[in-house]
Amino acid sequence: MRRAALGVLFVIARRRFLVEDHLVTPPFGCGCDPLCDACVSEQIAQLRGVAQRRGETWAQAIAAVIPIDRRWPHTERMRAIARRKVGDLSRDARLLELLADECVIGAARWWNRANERAG
Ligand SMILES: [Zn+2]
């Protein structure tokens, strides 16, 4: 009984030691907050496609209600909407701005292609 209790304490102490000395890799990034340059690069690479796809879906939804008779409007209002579309993907302000850029890229690409096809 006493030996078992000591064993549990040893496991807890060892785990704490590993985490505190950063020998255990956190599931995402290096644990930096705000994200360091390396983590921003890694995460934008992983999330770029998701953000662009959300932009495409957004443009398609707009096209369902208004005619595609002009180029994509790069306005502050559209930018604010893009920021909301990716708001759940990160808590890091710098990464969120980059993801909003990608969302706009996806939306504008889909919209402007449709605009070109429409003549
Ligand atoms: Zn980092």
Please indicate the count of domains: 2
Radius of gyration: 22 Å
Poorly predicted segments: 17-26
| Discrete helix count | 4
**Which H/E pattern describes the elements?**
HHHH
Tell me the helix content: 55-70%
Average pLDDT level: 86
Oligomer: single chain
Number of strand elements: 0
Largest sheet: none
- What is the structural class? mainly alpha
What ligand species are in this complex? zinc ion
Name the overall outline: elongated
Distance between the termini: 81 Å
The fraction of residues in strands falls at under 5%
Folded structure, characterized:
- Helices cover 69% and strands 0% of the residues.
- The chain has helices spanning 2-20, 37-63, 76-85, 93-118.
- It is built from four helices and no strands.
- With 119 residues, the chain is mainly α.
- The chain folds into two domains: 1-30, no CATH class; 32-118, no CATH class.
- α2 (37-63) runs parallel beside α4 (93-118).
- The model is unreliable at 17-26 (pLDDT under 50).
- It is elongated.
- The N and C termini lie far apart (81 Å).
